[in-house]
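yo

u said u wanted the structure for the complex thing, so here. seqs first:
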Amino acid sequence: MLVMGAPINLNHPGHYVHWGVIQISVANLVVISVMVVLFVLAMLLPFPKGRNRR
Amino acid sequence: MTAPALSRTWTGRLRARAEQALPPEQLLPDHQPVYVASWIYVFGVLTLAAFIVVLVSGGVLALKGPQWWHRSSTGHYFNSLHLWSVELFMAFMVIHLWGKFFMAAWRGRRAMTWITGAVCFLGSIGTAFTGYLVQSNLDSQWISTQAKDGLNSAGVGAFFNVLDFGQMLMWHIVLLPLVVGFVIGIHILQVRRRGVVPPMEIDPRDLVAQNVTS
Amino acid sequence: MTTGVTKWAGRTREYDLVKEFVVALVVVSVLTVALAAVFSSPDEKQITISTWSRGAPNDFVLTAATELDGTSGTATYGAPYNHTPDAAQKIGPVSLQHIAGVTHPIDTVADFVVGPLTGVPADAALAAALAQWQGAAAGQQQKWASGYDDALSKATDNDPAQVKSGDYGPVPVMLTRLLTMAQSGGLDGALLAQKQFFATDYTKPLLFIADGSYLEDRARAQHLGGDQWGMMNETGNYPGQAWLWLYTFWYQVKPFSTSGNADALVWGLMALLSLALVLVPFIPGVRSIPRWVPIHRLIWRDYYRGIRT
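structre next:
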């Protein structure tokens, strides 16, 4: 009941993706995808630079 | 001004060694090598920040005891903070690990930095696992009765009993955080001591008086 | 060989570590507060022996029958619970499980059935049944218990009321009373409180529950089964321990998925792989991968671009 207070209720039956032997929840897939996206962005986005010394 | 010579006492020797290994300008430098210019460098500090949020949210849960979060909506919210900070902690740590791997960040006598980092990762997995065991809900019942088989098969179950709630609570809130926190401390001191790993090719201008090892 | 500069004496740039840390702490705190507020966290209600025995009484009685005739998962487990021969898993010729020994002895007959029943007061029929059980030779006890377990397995829906008549001695009375005790919640307490008042060790009640199929059915419905990559899953639509992907992966593929030693083999393999992760800097080939994969060219692109030869 307390959980129902959350704007997005994740307590419904889980969604799963099957691909051959691989079986993964959509939630885990989202988490892993976000990690990969963050990694790629960290590689590509320019980093603000401080002042040079020497 | 020169500092007075330290005495030959154990205390004096320890201080001399600490100052030699980590002088203040190296412990808290306000400059970094020019190559430290990528967003990948922030994932280490993000992991550390998430670790602190994990400790604080877990600390509040500890204040009120292990059953609080089942009864109170405030307790449940703190449980949610604990869960999501752990998800962030693990995600940031793994991205940090990917980045450090592709930089081959163990080069130049930095193997111990890598080793302590990898031990942090493994220790955090153990800590998270014991956290799942002490939720005292269906998850804990299933995870403990399943995990016992792996641990028993390796002989570990003989002294590390995942079905013993009290034992797992102690491991989760005392022993493992202490170990992980300690190893994180060593890891960070290693980073400060050895510095951030340089690129694989060095500009000749930066090679002045450099100490290159193989 | 990997080479590297041990101490940087080249060009530097102003970099505020403390500010970076404070900003990171604020960002992570805000993210955590927001994620917790939006998504909350799961708390799938625990099951008790009481809810199990009321929700699936036939499964409970069948499980209790296997505890009594020594065929349940716990009764045949081996170390650390009992001395069942050849039950311990092996890695090659070595059984760490066996070497570690029986540190948590469990006698399912005494601990799960007879012991709790002897605490039930003022029940003449039960007292007579227990006296008959305790007065019988071990062979006779086994005959009664196995006979009843077999008959119950064959009965429609494993319903005790549908069991074919036979000589089961005191077993039907004992199991009926154990069911009543379980449904009232008494067995939960009896299994936990054995010999002490304060209790934190749930080994006995959890093993008893796990011997039935009620817990497993609930878990499988939530995709938590071992062959469902369950280790990395969470109830509902929540993310789970995604970092266990490699550990749970091995259980899905041969030879592990069909091996009786899967737990020991996967554990051994993961111990080895974990050690390999720690020792990456010293493993030829693996430590050279970063040289071959040009991701470092992306990370240090500004620096490399500025190199003057």
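Residues 64 and 75 of chain B are 8 Å apart (CA to CA). Chain B has a mean pLDDT of 93.
cya
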